[in-house]
Amino acid sequence: MRQFTTAAVQDGIGTVRLNRPQSYNALNLPTAKELAGTLMDFASDRAVRAIIITGTGKAFSAGGDLKQVLAHPVSPAAAFHEIAAHVDVCIIEIRRVKKPVIAAINGVAAGGGFSLALACDFRVMGQSAWLKQSFTSNGLSVDGGATFALPRLVGLARALEIAAFDEPITAEQALNWGLVTQVVPDDRVLAEAEQMARTLAQKSLHSFGLAKELLTNSFDTPFETQLENERQGLVACANHPDGLEGMRAFVEKRKPRFNT
Q1: 51 and 123 in a common domain
Q2: What is the pTM of this model?
Q3: How far is CA 15 from each of CA 18, 82, 167, 231, rounded to the nearest angstrom?
Q4: Is 54 helix (H, G, I), strand (E, B) or coil?
Q5: What is the pLDDT of residues 74-110, one digit of tens each?
Q6: Does one domain contain both 97 and 213?
Q7: Are residue 107 and residue 230 in the same domain, yes or no?
Q8: Cα(76)–Cα(16) distance, rounded to whole angstroms?
Q9: Same-domain pairing of 173 and 129
């Protein structure tokens, strides 16, 4: 039974909502476990063709619950060791799942919430929402895959600036820096994320999954190996029903119908 998140599947879109509004959806151990479990469920559910992560109330997520961290019966270090392990599972699931994952940033995304949003494939952000890495201002090391995502999204110099100065990042700045995909009125965040998810859900998940994997791995893959991986991916698509449907639709000058 979920206590700190809610989840629903409708029209091929799986939506998980962090649900601790009284603490700005801060990530504690149970919340991280629930989120990881839901993401795993969505990954294996063939009815789910796109995933949305959002928050309840005024925040996407304010990051780790530092009150609970400091109250840990062993030590704050032990608390972070436990929580980070489960947050990392969430990040890995997002990066591995061969389905589009959209962060609907309905309010502040800070600390672990910032990292969670960056891990997603696409980010729809409300006009009054803001981002903040927060870790370094609290004397902590950046976590949740943000040191992987940030330099890939904005370059090393900007990533280091964000880590060092830790100024709040407005929606306008986030869009200009390439941190988010789209900025919309606050009351349209979830609706626009759902529209994006519906658009992506109509495309070939097989093709999308290969593109996501190839792009994610490209930073650590030698060029010739990357070329071979691309070739194998192209061959795999040509043998897949989606690839055959897409090619036939192009030749027949009609819209493809992907359903696998």
Answers
A1: yes
A2: 0.95
A3: 10, 25, 30, 34
A4: strand
A5: 999 999 999 999 999 999 999 999 999 999 999 999 9
A6: no
A7: no
A8: 28
A9: yes
